[in-house]
Amino acid sequence: MFFVTRAADVLLQGGVIAYPTEGVYGLGCLPDEDVAVARVLLLKQRAASKGVILIAATADQLNGWITDSARQALPDPDPSQPITWIAPPGPRATPILRGANAGIAVRLTTHPIARALCNAVESPLVSTSANISGKPVARNRFVLRRQFMRRVDFIVPGDCGPVSGPSEIRVLLTGKVLRARQQ
Fold first, then answer.
1. pLDDT of residue 82
2. Listing from the earlier edge strand, what are the strands of the sheet with 17-20?
3. Largest CA distance in the chain
4. Burial profile 155-182: b = 16 or more Cβ within 10 angstroms, e = fewer
5. Pairwise CA distance, residues 22 & 106, whole Å
6. Cα–Cα distance between 89 and 138 in angstroms, integer?
7. Which of 48 and 1 is assigned the larger pLDDT?
8. pTM of the model
9. Which tens digit of pLDDT belongs to each residue from 110-160?
10. Where does 30-153 have alpha helices with state H?
C-alpha cells in the first residue's frame, strides 16, 4: 500500500495526516512530536485541556505511554465495538497529550489502514476526529477533503468503518462509561 508508506514518511518528518478509523476520519501525528500535536489541536480548534487519543495496533506500541499494568490490562479489541480507554499515563504521556486529564485516552485500533499506519511508524498515533470542534465529524472523503485538503500534509485514502461515529470511552480501571457510543 503505497499510501501507507507515504503517510508514514509524512508522520516521521513531523507532519499531520487525516486517515480513516473504525468510526470517523481522524487527524493525527506522532505523539512525541509536540509541534505536530499542537498543530492538530489548532486545525481542529480544540482546547488543549481536552487532550487527545492515542491509537495503536498492539498494546506493546503503548509501552511508555501508559503504565505497564494498564498495558497488560487492556482487553483485546472488538472490531464491532471500538472502545477508547482512559488509562494511567506512563512517562511519555506529556501534558499536551493528556490535556487537563489525569489519565490518557488510548485505543487498540482494528481498522486495517490505521493499524498499518501504526505498524509502519512503529508507534501509536494521535487520533482525534477530523472536524472543527463542535461541528459534525467527517464520515466521508468529500467532507474530509472540503475541510482539511490544504490544511494537512497528507490525506490517507480509504473508508471508515465498520461502525458509525466516535468510539465509546471508558475508564480502564473501573469500566465506567464516560461517553456512550453514538449511533
1. 92
2. 154-155, 17-20, 25-28, 125-129, 53-56, 104-108, 83-87, 168-171, 177-179
3. 42
4. bbebebeebeebbbbbebeeeeeeeebe
5. 14
6. 29
7. 48
8. 0.94
9. 999 999 999 999 999 999 999 998 888 888 888 888 889 889 999 999 999
10. 34-44, 68-73, 95-98, 112-121, 141-148
